[in-house]
Amino acid sequence: MQTFHLGIDVAKAKLDCALRLPTGKYRTKVVENNLKGFKALIEWLSKQGATTAHVCLEATGVYGEDVAEVLADSGMSVSVVNPAQIKAFGASHLVRTKTDKVDARLIAAFCAERSPAPWQAPTPSEQALRAMVLRLDALQTMRTQESNRLAVAREAVKPGIVEHIEWLDKQIDALIEAIREHLDNDPSLKGKQVLLDSIPGLGERTIAVLLAFYANFERFGNARQAVAFAGLDPRRYESGTSVKGKPRLSKIGHAFLRKALYMPAMVALYKTAWGKRFRARLAASGKPPKLIIGAMMRKLVHVVFGVLKSGKMFNPALHGG
C-alpha cells in the first residue's frame, strides 16, 4: 500500500502544505486557513491520490485546530506534534534554511520517518471550555494592565481607564458564570469536576482549566505524557563525570497550564496537610524551594490524571508521605 505523508506549516492566514510521495519526492501547495482553503486542500490531495495521507502539523494553538478536525473527519490520520520535536528533527538533519515551505517539507519528512501517534480531537464541549478559560485569562491580564496604568495615569485619561476596568469586571464576572453553567450542563464534565474538586489545593478556576486540557485523559498514554504536555517534566543536564547541572523544568509544553498550576501548587504546599507532608519530605532531602514548587506542580498533574482515570475521589493516604 502506497503511503503519502502531508506536512502542514500553520499560520494565521495560510497553510503551507508539503506532500511527500511514496517515491520520496515532494509536491507543495499553499491554501487559505479557512473552510474554503480546507476544501481546496482535500481536492488537491484527491488529485494526487493521497486521500488517506498521514497528516502532521505542529501544536501551535488555535490556528491549526480547524484544519486538523476537517482532515480527521475526512478519514485521514492526523498527528499534532510538539514543535520542539520538529526543531530537533531539523537540527539532526542539518537543516539551516527556515521558510514556511521548508518547514512544511520538514514536518512531512518527520511524519514519514517517525510515524507519530494519531491525534484525538477534543469534543465540542471541551473546545468551548478551552476557549472560555483562555478568554478569561486574557481579560484578567488586561485588567491587571489597566490597573497598573491607572496608578500612574494623568487625570486627563483616568476616567477612560476606570470605565474600561468596570467593563472588564463585568465581562470577567459574566464569563466566570458562563464557565460554571457550561460545566453544570455537561454531565461528563460535571462528573469530572466533582472528582477534581476532591483534590485539596484546586479551586474552581483551576479545575476549569484542567478540564479544558485534561478532560479527555485517554489522549495521554500515562501520567508522564500528561506532565510533558504542560512542560513540567524535569530536564537533566549531565555530561561525563564532571558536568552535572541542576534539574530544571523542560518548559517544552503548554505555558498556560504551567501558569495555571503555579498558585494551586503553592496553596497545596503551604495550606493542605498532604502538601505539607510532601514539602517536608523533599525539604528533608535537601531540595531547594523552587524545585519543590515545580515538583508539586508536576505532582498535581499526576494526581489529576490518576483521579480522572480511576474515577475515584482523592485519597490523601496515597500522597505526600
Enumerate how many helices there are, as a single number: 12
Strand arrangement across the biggest beta sheet: 3-2-1-4-5
The residue ranges in which pLDDT falls below 50 over 5 or more consecutive positions are: 237-243
> Radius of gyration in whole Å, from Cα?
23 Å
General form: globular
Mean of residue pLDDT values: 90
Distance between the termini: 54 Å
Oligomer: single chain
Total strands: the figure is: 7
SSE ordering: EEEHEHEHHHHHHHEEHHH
The major beta sheet can be summarized as: 5 strands, mixed
Query: Helix content range of the residues, please?
Result: 55-70%
- Strand coverage percent: 5-15%
Going by helix content, strand content and strand pairing, the class is alpha/beta
In short:
The protein has helices spanning 35-47, 65-73, 83-92, 100-114, 124-152, 158-185, 187-197, 204-214, 223-229, 255-271, 273-284, 289-310; strands at residues 5-10, 14-20, 26-32, 54-58, 77-81, 234-239, 243-249.
Structure description:
This protein has a 5-stranded mixed sheet with strand order 3-2-1-4-5. The chain has a two-stranded antiparallel sheet with strand order 6-7. It contains 12 helices and 7 strands. The chain is an alpha/beta fold. 57% of the residues lie in helices and 13% in strands. It has helices spanning 35-47, 65-73, 83-92, 100-114, 124-152, 158-185, 187-197, 204-214, 223-229, 255-271, 273-284, 289-310; strands at 5-10, 14-20, 26-32, 54-58, 77-81, 234-239, 243-249.
Secondary structure topology:
Layout: E1 5-10, E2 14-20, E3 26-32, H1 35-47, E4 54-58, H2 65-73, E5 77-81, H3 83-92, H4 100-114, H5 124-152, H6 158-185, H7 187-197, H8 204-214, H9 223-229, E6 234-239, E7 243-249, H10 255-271, H11 273-284, H12 289-310
Parallel strand pairs: 1-4, 4-5
Antiparallel strand pairs: 1-2, 2-3, 6-7
Helix pairs in contact: 5-6, 5-8, 7-8, 8-10, 9-12, 10-11, 10-12
